[in-house]
Amino acid sequence: MNKKSVSTVILQFLQEHQGEWYPTYHFCNRELYVGKDRYWLGNDAGRKARGLAIAGKIERKHDGKYAYFRAKPIPKLEAKQLSFGSTKAYNMVKT
User: Fold this and answer.
1) Backbone angles phi and psi of 53, in degrees to 5
2) 51-65 residue pLDDT tens
3) Inter-CA distances, 55 with 22, 36, 38, 52, 59, Å
């Protein structure tokens, strides 16, 4: 088992489950799998998740009495058409 900080484990877990919201209690006093490794998160895991949200690394919302966390959405990249000015083939080698 690798040594990682609780904050790193939470951040990597949420990035692996992109777009899914997880309540605070999902992280407290439980084992969490990140990749093929498992980590034990103690009582302070909820506090660490809140700290990540305050730092702007993850998103937080409240629903009733629980806070929910998720990784920030990955921005979509737009495909851009390149214009070369002619239709010649490039990187051709004469043989």
Assistant:
1) -70, -40
2) 999 999 999 999 988
3) 18, 27, 25, 5, 10
Q: What is the pLDDT of residues 36-52, one digit of tens each?
A: 999 999 999 999 999 99
Which residues does 53 contact at the CB level (< 8 Å), separation at least 6?
59, 60, 69
87 is a domain residue: no
**Which of helix, strand or coil describes residue 44?**
coil
What average pLDDT does the segment 27-32 reach?
A: 94
The total number of structural domains in the chain stands at 1
Decide if 25 contacts 46 (C-beta within 8 A): yes
Domain that holds residue 47: 6-71
Rg (CA), the chain: 21
